[in-house]
Amino acid sequence: MTILGIAFGIVFCLLRVVSGESGYAQNGDLEDAEPDYSFSCYSQLEVNGSQHLLRCAFDDPDVNSTHLGFEICDGLLVAGCLNFIKLQEIYFIETNKFLLIGDSKICVKLGQRILTCRKMNIVHIVKPEAPFDVRVIYREEANDFVVTFNTSHLQKKYVKNLIHEVAYHQEKNEHDWMHVNLSSTKLTLLQRKLQPDAMYEIKVRSIPTDYYKGFWSEWSPSFHFRTPEAKGPGKMEPVLLIISILSFFSVAVMVILAGVLWKKRIKPIVWPSLPDHKKTLEQLCKKPKKNLTVSFNPESFLDCQIHKVDGIQARDEVESFLQDTFPAQLEESEKQRLGGGVQCPNWPSKHAVITPKTFRGDASLRCLAGNVSVCGTPVLPSSRSPECREGGKNGPHVYQGLLLGPGTTNATLHPPFPFQSEILTLNPAAQGQLLLTPLGSNQEEAYVTMSSFYQNQ
Amino acid sequence: MVFFRKIFILQLVGLVLTSNFTDCDFEKIRMDYLNIISKDLTCTDCDATLRCEDQPDCLTKIERLTLHPTPGCKSLPEELASRTEATLERSCPGYYRKQKNNAQAMKKRKKREDTIKRCQKIVSNLIGLWRRFMRL
């Protein structure tokens, strides 16, 4: 029982002591608690030449700071500690003795008694100086606003790299602020992103970055500007108007020209017409003119030069021969014919091939115009008389201007052109099929030859 | 016995005070030099003749030139020496400060300009060594 009483007494005393230390008064009211000496500081480097500023203040504005002081130790270029200067409720120190590397210890002291301390790094609590000289310039040609401002940190050694925040709003919209962050001191605002004919307010603040850390600076003084009125729908730049009119007329002229020249000039180039084979063939194979000379009377072919062709010869050799000897041979053959002899003209052993080329310009060949076949095959006339032709059995034979090969038969050819049926007779010794070898080496050359012959007509 | 004990203590102290700078936080030292120490080093006619091979070697030579000046240049600007020592102390484990009396440096402030002129060669070499350290 005694022990129990003692225990209760001890517990009661302990409770009283604890409640007394907490400030709990007998009347139940809470006495003044221990004041909160928590504080915060910031630094400003090179704020006055090479002098740095360190400023501290209590977080609780109700703190009775009458006999309180601040001091900084460590992190100094000097040994010992430095005391702060008090200005109303603010404590500060301006010196160039900060080491700037490593932590410093900042303490609150009451007389000589240290109340509370905090370790801080001077370069991590930097508060930059506020920007100034904010200006806004409107560029009409670019339809934008150029915002420029200045900061004292551009000329400092230590805190040079800052992040700037530009805030602007329409004055009638009090809380509708727009924010832009940038590292330079120039910003461009597009006119189309702002309301026309409105009043705007703009301001800037800064914060350190990279190695230095800290807090936002104070806002710069605000700048006010008005945006221009919107351009009316009827208003237009004179240059733009002229260009539009010229473009319209140019397009109209081009459309008209395209319509006019479409059929004649443009369409053949853009969509060339392919030749119609039927029409082409018809053109080439036109019926002979009615006024052409057609006769079975040999005398009507007296002007024509008919040459006996014996076998297939080289074109070059024959042509050259023809160019040299043909006029002489013609005269000779005429004389012989007129002389009544059957003797054939002295035809060279080499067979001459008369191509339509040699006919050009030769008036005596005009009578042969009617001899052209429906297919336009060239006809090599023979200047020999029919008797000579009959006698020339060993020589080469020509059928419709084509050299006949050795295998030619004795049979009379039935040409598709009835008026030529008695002109030529074939070598009776030759048997076999008739070989029609065109003048020249291939059918293409014959085609070309025939078409050009047709053109000559 | 006492004699051998003194020798042992001296050797221990020497072992502790000798730094080889191999375990330093070189990046932190680089940032300290770039943002703070370099502002104290300026030369008009820079003519660096000293070289260093690697970062520990550069720091060894920097520390020696900064904190143990040659005759003719008894001390460099106090900010330079103190900040160099401070960055080595906080970035290199086992490094201890060698500057004992900063009050003496304050008294020498009057002759600061003369000191800088006489120590121009040392400053040039220091700038060269720091720049080499930054490039490694």
Give the topology.
The complex is a heterodimer of chains A (457) and B (136).
Chain A: H1 2-21, E1 39-48, E2 51-58, E3 68-73, E4 81-83, E5 85-87, E6 90-95, E7 104-110, E8 113-120, E9 132-139, E10 144-150, E11 162-170, E12 178-182, E13 186-190, E14 199-208, E15 223-226, H2 238-270, H3 277-284, H4 315-338, H5 356-359, H6 386-391, E16 398-399, E17 402-404, E18 436-437, H7 443-456
Antiparallel strand pairs in A: 1-2, 2-6, 3-4, 3-7, 5-6, 7-8, 9-10, 10-13, 11-12, 11-14, 14-15, 16-17, 17-18
Chain B: H1 2-17, H2 26-35, H3 55-67, H4 78-91, H5 102-107, H6 112-118, H7 120-135
Please characterize this protein's 3D structure:
The complex is a heterodimer of chains A (457) and B (136). By secondary structure, chain A is an alpha+beta fold. Chain A contains 7 helices and 18 strands. In chain A, the strands form 5 sheets. A 4-stranded antiparallel sheet of chain A has the order 1-2-6-5, with no helix packed on it. In chain A, strands 4-3-7-8 form a 4-stranded antiparallel sheet, with no helix packed on it. A 4-stranded antiparallel sheet of chain A has the order 12-11-14-15, with no helix packed on it. In chain A, strand 16 (398-399) and strand 17 (402-404) form a beta hairpin. Chain B has 136 residues and is mainly alpha-helical. Chain B is built from 7 helices and no strands. Chain B has helices at 2-17, 26-35, 55-67, 78-91, 102-107, 112-118, 120-135. The longest helix of chain B is centred in the first third of the chain and has 16 residues, at 2-17. Mean pLDDT of chain B is 78; it is low at 100-110. Chains A and B meet through loops of A and helix 2, helix 4 and helix 5 of B.
